């Protein structure tokens, strides 16, 4: 999945704006939110927060509901996030993992859009190629670097590989379709250690990590000085440092 910086990301201006004088108090309304142990702050914000609090809305759910984020009208469960590494780990909704072995239907649910504005895949993650809709005697089963995924219906042959050079030189049987799916390196090692014994559902539950684009260093300086980093209330395009009680923020 390739991603490019939005044009306005490249021209982010940074200013210090006092929180008083707006319909909402950005310093108060954009305070970090705890969603089931996941700390939510800029560039994310809770679904109930004002629009200027973040670029990406996260629904905190509830006691029995997962924390979710939506990309292109499709919801994903949020497993965790790391602000120092600028990564968010997401999975398909838990309900999607119970399809009675119907892996073909499941593959459509776990795939990501080709492009998510503001995000890219970290270099530490690996793309695997998943071949599906293959017949029971697929030539793929004879490839040493391609292994079968378990847990699918008997008439569904699913194969995968992390060797891009194999994919580049391979002509899959006409009965096969394929997608690329990013996985954690640790997940891939665990699956290989088990000789491909993981089911497709188990692999998917490990999640996908996305990295959001770098913001100006002033945003970190704003937070460390006691301010709140959020969108500029005037144009909703640039970032701003909102201060408490009209005190100046050193950004």
TrEMBL record:
Q: What is this protein called?
A: Wall-associated receptor kinase galacturonan-binding domain-containing protein
Does the keyword field hold Glycosyltransferase? Answer: no
Per the UniProt entry, the signal peptide is: 1-21
All copies of the Wall-associated receptor kinase galacturonan-binding domain together span 30-91
* Main subcellular localisation: membrane
- Name its cellular compartments: Membrane
Q: Does the keyword Signal apply?
A: yes
MF terms per GO, please?
A: polysaccharide binding
């Amino acid at each position: 999945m390739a991603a490019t910086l939005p044009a306005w990301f490249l021209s982010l201006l940074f200013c210090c704006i006092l929180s008083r004088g707006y319909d909402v108090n950005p310093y108060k309304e954009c305070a970090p939110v705890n969603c089931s142990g996941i700390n939510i702050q800029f560039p994310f914000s809770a679904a109930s927060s004002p629009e200027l609090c973040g670029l990406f809305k996260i629904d905190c759910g509830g006691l029995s509901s997962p924390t979710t984020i939506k990309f292109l009208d499709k919801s994903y469960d949020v497993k965790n996030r790391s602000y120092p590494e600028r990564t968010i780990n997401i999975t398909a909704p838990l309900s999607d993992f119970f399809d009675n072995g119907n892996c073909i239907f499941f593959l459509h649910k776990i795939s990501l859009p080709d492009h998510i504005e503001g995000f890219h895949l970290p270099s530490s993650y690996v793309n695997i190629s998943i071949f599906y809709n293959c017949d029971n005697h697929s030539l793929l089963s004879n490839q040493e670097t391609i292994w079968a995924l378990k847990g699918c219906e008997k008439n569904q042959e699913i194969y995968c590989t992390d060797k891009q050079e194999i994919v580049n030189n391979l002509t899959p049987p006409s009965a096969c379709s394929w997608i690329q799916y990013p996985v954690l390196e640790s997940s891939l090692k665990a699956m290989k250690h088990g000789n491909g014994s993981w089911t497709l559902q188990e692999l998917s539950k490990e999640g996908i990590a996305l990295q959001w684009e770098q913001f100006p260093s002033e945003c970190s300086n704003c937070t460390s000085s006691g301010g709140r980093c959020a969108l500029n209330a005037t144009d909703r395009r640039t970032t701003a440092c909102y201060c408490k009680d009209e005190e100046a923020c050193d950004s």
